[in-house]
Design brief:
The mean pLDDT is 95. Helix 3 packs parallel to helix 9. By secondary structure, this protein is an alpha/beta fold. Helix 7 links the parallel strand 8 and strand 9. The chain contains 12 helices and 16 strands.
C-alpha cells in the first residue's frame, strides 16, 4: 500500500496536477460501514459530511441488490427490462402527480444538462437564471451556472446565463422571498431585452451550496409565480437536498412550497452507485425527445436501477426521513448551546440532516471567520470527525451525514467540536 506522500505523488503523475483533496493532511480511506469510515492505519472516523452513501456506507440492502442483479443481467435500455420501469414508477410516486416521467442518467451533471435543454425545447429560448454562489455540475453547459468557480475555457455560452444574488437569511433577511423574486424579475427582463429570451430558473430549493439559509416554508412561491408568468420553467436541483434529507418532506421543493416543472437528481440516488435522473412533466420529456435524440448507454441499466430501488426501500423500511427530523432537531439544539457559549458562532441553521454554523469574527459586523473555519475542519479531521465548509465566504460548517446518523453520533460530533473550539479560541 502506498504511503500518503507516495499516493499524492502518483496522483499528480497519473491523474494530473490540481486534482483536489480534502484537508491540509489528506485522508486515505479504505473501508466504510454505516456512518463510519476507516483509514489505511485502521483509525475510525465519524462521517458527518458525505451524502452520497445516503443510507449508510456499504448498506447491506444496497450491496445485496447490486450483487444479485450484477449476477443476473446488466444491459442498456434499448432492450426491455423491468427494473427501470419498477424504479421510475416507485420514484415518481414520491412526487407531485405532474412529475410523472423520468430519464435516468449516471450523474447529476448530466441530469442538469438535460434539464437546461428541456427548457430550451419547451420555450424556444435559451436564457437561464441561477444564483451567484451555487454549483450544478461540470458539463460544458452547466459549468456556466457557477460564478464562484467560473470556467476559464469553454464554448462561449456565458451570454445565455444571468445571475441573482443567493439568499442570505443572516446578512440580508428576505422572510417571504419577495426580494429574491424581484431579482428574478429583473434578470428575466434583461434576457428578454437583449433578445436571448427567458427559458428557466434553476435552483437548489434548499440552497445548500449557498449556505442553506433559514428560509421559511413556502419561500420559493413568489419566484415560482414570476417564472411561470414569464413563460419559463422552474428547475429544482434536488441532488443534495432530496430523498428526505430535510426531515420534514421527501423533497426540499415541497418544503419551499413549489412544484417544479423539472427536478434533477444525482449523488445519493443509489448510495454511491453512479445514478442520476430527471423527473418532469410528460409533455416536457416528449418535447425534449423531439428536439434531441438522447440515449445514455449506462443510464437506467438494471444494476443501477436495483441499487436505486434498494435506497428507496431502505429509506422506507428504516423510517429514515423521521430519523432525519428527530436527529436534526436534536443536533441544532446542541449547536445552539455552542452558539451561546462561543461568540465565534454567529448563526445556526438547517433542517433535518442538513445543519451547520456560520463562523464570524464579530457578531455585530458579521465578518466571516473563513480561515478559522478552515482550521476547525482540519482539527476535527485529526480528531476523527469528517465535515466540510461552504457558503459564499466558506465560513459555514457543512454537516450533512448519512441518513442513519443518530443522537449518539451527534453527541460525539458536538462534544468533539466543543473541545476543538475551546482549544482553538484559546490559541488565538
Amino acid at each position: 500500500m502506498r504511503s500518503t506522500t507516495k499516493m499524492m505523488e502518483d496522483r499528480d503523475l497519473l491523474l494530473g496536477k490540481n486534482v483536489s483533496t480534502f484537508y491540509d493532511d489528506p485522508v486515505h480511506f479504505v473501508k466504510g460501514s454505516g456512518v463510519w469510515l476507516w483509514d489505511a492505519e485502521g483509525r475510525k472516523y465519524l462521517d458527518c459530511y458525505n451524502n452520497v452513501p445516503h443510507v449508510g456506507h456499504c448498506n447491506e440492502r444496497v450491496v445485496e441488490a447490486i450483487s444479485r442483479q450484477a449476477n443476473t443481467l446488466n444491459i442498456h435500455t434499448r432492450y426491455l427490462h423491468d427494473g427501470i420501469l419498477d424504479y421510475v414508477e416507485k420514484l415518481t410516486a414520491t412526487t407531485a402527480s405532474s412529475l410523472d416521467t423520468a430519464i435516468l442518467t449516471c450523474t447529476g451533471s448530466e441530469a442538469n444538462d438535460i434539464a437546461l435543454r428541456m427548457a430550451e425545447a419547451m420555450t424556444g429560448k435559451r436564457g437561464i437564471i441561477a444564483t451567484d454562489a451555487t454549483y450544478h455540475g461540470n458539463t460544458s453547459l452547466v459549468s456556466q451556472l457557477s460564478k464562484s468557480n467560473v470556467p476559464t475555457v469553454g464554448f462561449g455560452l456565458s451570454q445565455f446565463f444571468r445571475f441573482v444574488e443567493a439568499p442570505d437569511s443572516y446578512r440580508r433577511p428576505d422572510p417571504d422571498g419577495i426580494l429574491f423574486a424581484n431579482s428574478v424579475t429583473t434578470q428575466i427582463a434583461a434576457l428578454e431585452e437583449d433578445g436571448t429570451g427567458f427559458a428557466a430558473l434553476v435552483v437548489c430549493p434548499y440552497f445548500l451550496n449557498e449556505g442553506f439559509p433559514n428560509n421559511a416554508d413556502g419561500w420559493l412561491r413568489p419566484a415560482a409565480d414570476i417564472v411561470r408568468k414569464a413563460g419559463g420553467l422552474l428547475i429544482c436541483d434536488e441532488v443534495q437536498s432530496g430523498f428526505g434529507r430535510t426531515g420534514t418532506h421527501f423533497w426540499a421543493h415541497e418544503k419551499m412550497g413549489v412544484v417544479p416543472d423539472v427536478m434533477t437528481l444525482g449523488k445519493p440516488m443509489a448510495n454511491g452507485h453512479p445514478v442520476g435522473g430527471v423527473i418532469a412533466r410528460g409533455d416536457i420529456v416528449s418535447e425534449f425527445r423531439k428536439g434531441y435524440r438522447y440515449f445514455n448507454t449506462f443510464g437506467g441499466n438494471p444494476v443501477s436501477c436495483a441499487a436505486a430501488m434498494a435506497v428507496l426501500d431502505e429509506i422506507e423500511a428504516e423510517n429514515l426521513v423521521a430519523n432525519a427530523k428527530k436527529t436534526g432537531d436534536y443536533a441544532r439544539q446542541r449547536l445552539k448551546a455552542l452558539q451561546a457559549k462561543y461568540d465565534i458562532i454567529g448563526d445556526v441553521r438547517g433542517s433535518g440532516l442538513i445543519f451547520g454554523a456560520e463562523m464570524v469574527l464579530d457578531k455585530t459586523a458579521k465578518e466571516p471567520a473563513s480561515a478559522f473555519t478552515d482550521g476547525i475542519i482540519n482539527a476535527m479531521r485529526h480528531r476523527g470527525i469528517i465535515l466540510s465548509k461552504l457558503g459564499r465566504h466558506k465560513n459555514t460548517l457543512k454537516i450533512r451525514p448519512p441518513m442513519p446518523f443518530s443522537k449518539a453520533n451527534a453527541d460525539l460530533l458536538f462534544d468533539t467540536l466543543d473541545d476543538v473550539l475551546n482549544k482553538s479560541l484559546n490559541m488565538l
